[in-house]
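User: Sequence recovery, please. Input:
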């Protein structure tokens, strides 16, 4: 089966979040199952682009409104990612360093999708599945079905994976001129609440829709940034498939970023070596439990309450804890965390920005990982933490609910709480401190158990293949 994944991100080419991790892993594991999965994405000006070899495979042109644009498609020569990687270049639109954040993002991603459809429509064969990810590729199912220029794609099954429904790519109808000519009677397949909504369009037009966890699919019927009724209406073609993690990248026995590698047999010694390095680098006390937060400092991750929750935890638990934060986002939250680092020196430290090597050492060296998210479609961080023997402390939401069982329940191995609040976080930190100092044998048993949980991509990749096969 030939599968074309279309996405805005793909690790290690360009990544802003979990979308990039998924698109960088799922095709590799589908290929291992004997299929032919490929990835198509924009050609940003990234280090990966400059450090690898490419070959030109296609050139073409299309209209974006009244303007004509030329595009080229290049292919990575060595298959180093475990799948064929194609980049689409449109000068003046896609040839930029950042993935998102430009005033003309609507034009950029519409042009990318037009070029993708135009290129695939000119193949001398048809792929079996076109799998689009999030709103950046969300207009493709509509274009395949309702744009005459791409009518030869109309019988190819399309699948939409929603990694985060909060972001939908809204455009006013004044930008409808950007789209290729389409059947005017089908304008409603683009519309949601008097705007062109690429994510809503994909939900309407794709043959199947999935979210990246089971619980998130249910949550979207109640909270989906305005699309709740749509998910309820389309529930017959919507399912949840839990993300996996790439066990070849995230393996404490072989991870080159770690100070000392370890396995479930010797995790105590290995984790302590990595913790020692973290505490030395950031001025923390190795004898106290180390709590970490890794991710974007934004509201949906509840980062806005993190400074107060950390301060409350340090004071209420008499300083029997360390906190290390890695991430960036809301400038106000960044400033608050930096101020807290100075106010509570020796208890709190930060790294504002992102470092892939540091994140690996933090997963390996920390005792606990905080994820108080308000929204968490799947979450990969908690799965990385489980693999590296770091106990996740998570809010009972989305994929966190599906992957973490509270240690107070049968065969539990994590800590869960219900509300994204300072009180809930502080209370949960207290439970963790009690585990660390008073229930070490139980804590070690939990770590041994959770390091053996299989969250690899093999199972998830097969579920996607089964989904595709049901459409043929």
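Assistant: Recovered sequence (472 residues):
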């Amino acid at each position: 089966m030939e599968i074309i994944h279309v996405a805005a991100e793909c690790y290690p080419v360009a990544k802003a979040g979990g979308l990039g991790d998924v698109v960088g892993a799922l095709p590799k594991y589908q290929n291992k199952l004997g299929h032919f999965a490929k990835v198509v994405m924009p050609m940003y000006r990234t280090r990966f682009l400059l450090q690898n070899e490419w070959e030109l495979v296609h050139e073409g042109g299309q209209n974006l409104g009244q303007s004509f644009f030329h595009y080229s498609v290049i292919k990575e020569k060595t298959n180093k990612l475990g799948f064929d990687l194609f980049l689409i270049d449109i000068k003046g639109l896609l040839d930029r360093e950042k993935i998102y954040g430009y005033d003309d993002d609507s034009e950029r991603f519409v042009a990318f999708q037009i070029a993708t459809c135009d290129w695939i429509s000119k193949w001398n064969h048809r792929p079996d599945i076109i799998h689009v990810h999030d709103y950046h590729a969300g207009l493709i199912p509509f274009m395949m079905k309702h744009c005459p220029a791409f009518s030869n794609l109309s019988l190819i099954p399309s699948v939409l994976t929603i990694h985060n429904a909060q972001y939908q790519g809204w455009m006013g109808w004044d930008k409808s001129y950007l789209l290729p000519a389409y059947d005017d009677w089908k304008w409603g397949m683009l519309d949601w609440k008097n705007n062109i909504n690429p994510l809503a369009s994909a939900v309407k037009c794709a043959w199947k829709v999935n979210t990246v966890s089971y619980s998130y699919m249910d949550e979207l019927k109640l909270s989906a940034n305005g699309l709740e009724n749509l998910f309820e209406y389309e529930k017959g073609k919507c399912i949840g498939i839990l993300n996996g993690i790439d066990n070849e990248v995230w393996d404490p026995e072989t991870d080159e970023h770690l100070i000392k590698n370890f396995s479930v047999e010797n995790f105590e010694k290995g984790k302590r070596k990595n913790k020692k390095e973290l505490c030395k680098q950031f001025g923390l006390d190795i004898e106290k439990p180390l709590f970490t937060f890794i991710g974007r400092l934004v509201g949906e991750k509840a980062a806005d309450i993190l400074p107060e929750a950390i301060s409350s935890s340090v004071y209420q638990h008499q300083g029997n804890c360390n906190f290390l934060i890695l991430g960036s986002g809301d400038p106000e939250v960044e400033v608050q965390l930096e101020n807290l680092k100075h106010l509570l020196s020796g208890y709190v430290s930060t790294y504002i920005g992102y470092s892939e090597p540091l994140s690996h050492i933090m997963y390996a060296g920390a005792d606990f990982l905080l994820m108080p998210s308000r929204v968490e479609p799947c979450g990969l961080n908690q799965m990385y933490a489980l693999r590296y023997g770091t106990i996740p402390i998570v809010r009972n939401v989305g994929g966190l609910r599906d992957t973490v069982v509270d240690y107070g329940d049968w065969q539990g191995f994590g800590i869960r709480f219900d509300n994204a609040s300072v009180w809930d976080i502080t209370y949960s930190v207290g439970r963790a401190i009690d585990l660390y100092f008073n229930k070490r044998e139980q804590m070690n048993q939990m770590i041994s158990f959770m390091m053996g949980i299989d969250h690899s991509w093999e199972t998830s990749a097969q579920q996607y293949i089964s989904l595709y096969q049901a459409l043929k």
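The longest helix spans residues 105-121.
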